[in-house]
Amino acid sequence: MRLSIIVRKIKDQQPEIGSPNWCRRNLAPGIDNASVFTSVCINTAIYLPWLIGQCRKTGVVFKRAVIKHVADAASLHHSGKKADVVVNCTGLSSRKLGGVNDDKLHPIRGQIVVVRNDPGAMFSISGTDDAEDEVTYMMTRAAGGGTVIGGSYQKDQWDPLPDPNLAVRIMKRAIALVPQLVGEGQGIEGLDVIRHGVGLRPFREDGPRIEADKVNGVSVVHNYGHGGFGYQASFGCAAEAVELVNGVLKQKGRAKL
Ligand SMILES: Cc1cc2nc3c(=O)[nH]c(=O)nc-3n(C[C@H](O)[C@H](O)[C@H](O)COP(=O)(O)OP(=O)(O)OC[C@H]3O[C@@H](n4cnc5c(N)ncnc54)[C@H](O)[C@@H]3O)c2cc1C
Prior knowledge:
Its main location: other. It is an enzyme of class 1 (oxidoreductase). The protein is of the alpha+beta class and 257 residues long. It has four helices and eleven strands; from the N terminus they run E-H-E-H-E-E-E-E-E-E-H-E-E-E-H. The radius of gyration is 22 Å and the shape is elongated. The two termini are 33 Å apart.
């Protein structure tokens, strides 16, 4: 658990959100309010392999393949028999995947810099003056995963490569927000960069699609389109998808998951 601090500038304030007087006296000029709480930041490089281990423990068989049409997945069941139901969790690729072709999906490009520096808490601030689609936050990942500094929120941008100019803005904004990220008087040269990264958030108009479907006679349960909250929402969305799968299995007279 880590301390997290979210700061909201006066210019970004929404009138319906109150400003607690207790924190006002400690705020920098231009800042309207701040919230402090403890929170976690998972290290996905550790979390995802752990999830695979949990699945394997319960007997899940993993196979790798690139699928052109969602219905083709039914023929890949390890038993050699046709699967009763296919669960489609292909994220942004559901835009192009045959049998799905969901044009409500859009990439929201997020660029980050991962550094070894530790700001001591997690921080984010509403908006930046650099661009409407740029943001500022930093999160220190569990178990020595470094600090992720963000970022951007660029709708319909597919570029998978880091933009060096944006990287400089990201790093400068982080230091302006949390000067203790680097040594006294240092600028971005004080950041110990591990890597630059880009990810495309699988944003979907109308929200995630968690829905039972039938494609070319194959039962499909979709679970994709979670934008920038796929990890946070994963247990809830998976529970809903499992219910839908069980509904399909019940109709087919099969055992529940
Ligand atoms: C910069 C950034 C910051 C983020 N911050 C957060 C955060 O703080 N909290 C949070 O909860 N989320 C965050 N997210 C969002 C989160 O990463 C996504 O919501 C999540 O990864 C989506 O998971 P998914 O499994 O649905 O899709 P993906 O992770 O895209 O997985 C889809 C999988 O399907 C496979 N696949 C696709 N097409 C095919 C095919 N045709 N055949 C075979 N396999 C296929 C892919 O190989 C991939 O393994 C962030 C994302 C970015 C980019």
